[in-house]
Amino acid sequence: MKFVEDQSPDETLDLVCRMCPMHLLEPGDKIKCMKKGQVLEVVTDYDGALDDIPEWCKKCGHEFLGIEEDEDCYKLYIKKKK
Amino acid sequence: MNGAYLDHASATPVRKEVLDAMLPYFSERFANPSTVYDMGSKIRLVVEEQRAKVANLIGAKADEIIFTSSGAEANNLAIKGVAFARQKKGKRIIVSSIEHHSVLNSARFLERFDFEVTFLPVDGYGVVDPNRLVRAITPETILVSIGHANNEIGTIQSMVELAAVCKEKGIIFHTDAVASVGNTSVDVNEMNVDLLSLSGPSLGAPKGTAALYFNKKVRLMPLIQGGIQENGRRAGTENVPGIVGLGKAAELAKRELPEKMSHVRKLRDRLVKGIFEQVEKVSFTGHPEKRLPGHASFCFEAIEGEALIFMLAQAGIYTNTGSACASKALKTSPVLGAIGIRADLAQGSTVFTIDAGNTVEEIDHVLEKLPAIVDRLRSFSPIWGKEIPEYEEDVCT
Questions:
Q1: Which residue, among B228, B229, B233, would best test binding to A if mutated, counting the most A CBs under 10 Å from its CB?
Q2: Residues of B whose CB is below 8 A from A14
Q3: Structural domains in chain A plus CATH codes
Q4: CA B166 – CA B107 distance, rounded (Å)
Q5: For the segment B123-148, what is each residue's pLDDT rounded down to a tens digit?
Q6: Rounded CA separation B120/B286 (Å)
Q7: Residue B325 falls in the annotated catalytic set
Q8: What CATH class has B16-253?
Q9: pTM higher than the cut 0.90
Q10: Which CATH superfamily is B4-10+257-380 part of?
């Protein structure tokens, strides 16, 4: 797992307390509206996202930048590549 | 004139326009809105249209509405959902002492999980003092829940002031507006609330329909686990006919509310004036001005409320005591106890809730029948005409 710090995302999605698979559906919708090169921050408390989101990035052709652990949640960073 | 139904806080008839809108969704338009084929996706669009109509009624955005099965569920989701999502920030909650049982008992349930709950007192009109709220807040307070209007005494709270206190302290503010949405103006932006519960039956939609408004910045732990209906916040296949009914009722309420408020206020004032002119030893409960326009609540001295309700029903007049827990245990209702009504007087609590379909003739029918019924009940009463000593009694819980 790649850890990052001090990211400056262009957009943030707060998915804390949301049921699976919202951690994949909402980033999919959100990233469609973003520009190539912009960074999306996904905030979640769902452990499954740690595997699912990097895998989803590979399938969709986006770059998974890494995660930052917060006090009670994870922040995952995705760079839109296409 | 054969009677008058004046218990709209308990139940309202489903409006014909609402029923007509719902009927196709029981049979020919039955598909599950979560399915991907066209039959289902069309229903999904219908559900989203209803979400927008409900949002429009209270000045919210469509994606800030979660459909629920009842006002009680909306209150449970707001209180437990916020408490469990924010418990790392603190475990203190404040609710007023005159909340609906779905709020009070949700808060008491959280006490089992080491949350601390403050039950905020109210004044003699049932009003929460914002200064008292300020004093009750601690650094660990994460949630305040104060009902917009009380269904038993009709009092409307000063939401703007109460919300301002919470905003300043960064505390989530929920209001139970089940008694008020559809009966008085409600705008979540003007009120500045984070969460608001509303219920379909208050609007002429069927029982089993309700919604929770939530500010999207508020994290909510779902109470029902399962699929991702309601955007992953409440699992369970949607009650599509009910949602269509709620949407239609919200659309009608938005259009008709000013006229309805004016109509029911006139009837309410006629009823109050008539009762005070014709019946002695009766007191009005709740705030005289800051109250729901179609709501009139009284305590008749030396009368047992249940007996009055029963005898009024025999005359075709349907009202309520407004104090369900008083009926069997003969104890003071928590709301009347909280506003300082004497226990013996609280037994004579009677609540009239008027809706758009009521008429002047119906109010006059009440005024014709009620005084004689009160006189008759008092003639049996062992305490009528006697001095009652003041005493304290525990409120029921």
A1: B228
A2: 217, 219
A3: 11-79 (3.30.110.40)
A4: 18
A5: 999 999 999 999 999 999 999 999 99
A6: 17
A7: yes
A8: alpha beta
A9: yes
A10: Aspartate Aminotransferase, domain 1 (3.90.1150.10)
